[in-house]
Design goal:
Shape: globular
Radius of gyration: 24 Å
Strand content: under 5%
Length: 324
Amino acid sequence: MESESKQVKQKLGVLDILEEAVTFYVKNINFIIFTFLTSLPFFFVMVYFEILFQETMVEVPEIISLLPFYEPNYAYVIQLYGVDDTSIPVKNFTRDYLPVLIQLGFMYLVPLHVLELWSAVVTMDSASKLRSEENNMSLKDMFKISIDISIMKGTFITSLYMLFWSTCILIALPWTISNCYFFFRDFGYYIFFAVICFLALSKLLMWYLEWSAIWNMSFVISVLEGIYGIGALRVSYFFSRGNQMRGLLLMLVFFVLGLCLRLSCVSLGCYKGGYGIFVQIGFLIVVNTLKWVSCTIYFYDCKERKMEKKVDMESSGKDLENNS
């Protein structure tokens, strides 16, 4: 029976991982309450960040029009403001938008990063313990074991590596677009420019999602195995070998969910006021919790695959020795 269960776990696909994560989340009311309460600081900071971020997203065309390399389309500008160009309000990128972008960058790198890290650590730690305890932990017990400063410090070190590399890739996105624009604008090949941009961004996105699976698994390793920093990334890379596509698809699911929530909120104007932004962030918190539970399940599955492969190799090696 035990060997059969291991065999089933060995064949976990992306849909199997997601189904197990959702089932685990729905069946554990204490876990839902616990993750909700521990995510409240992250929730409130995220609300302010999302309002500012979505307001900035809406004004992206205007921000781009103020950049030095941009050649303004006056017909579009007149259509945007409904007036001729003499009445267009004069805005300056450095004065009007740069401080907002700096504020967004600071919020993303400092308070949001720390609070999301805290939420991720307590989520993965409690999810792992609930799996091992067969869902017998009370809410009081979960709060008692949720705070471990040593785990937080070690996982914070791991998160700094992830933050550095993910930020580099996020910076590479506008850099790629601007370089493609500079290269092709003089030729007027706008369709060719769009195709090249699409291919370059698709490749960057695939690379980002594939490495996101490795980075997120290194978080799980830091929390559950006590391995931090470069060591956690090495172990995560070892476990991920042969599972890159599965990790990529798993991260793609949560990337698309987060993107759809943000775009729907922008299109409905939730950032202008009302309760819409709170609903969006609430769903984002649930998606974030499911992501970390899925990463925990994904880690256990990859680890079991590697351990079983190692045992099979050792047993086959012994058989060869006995036969010789």
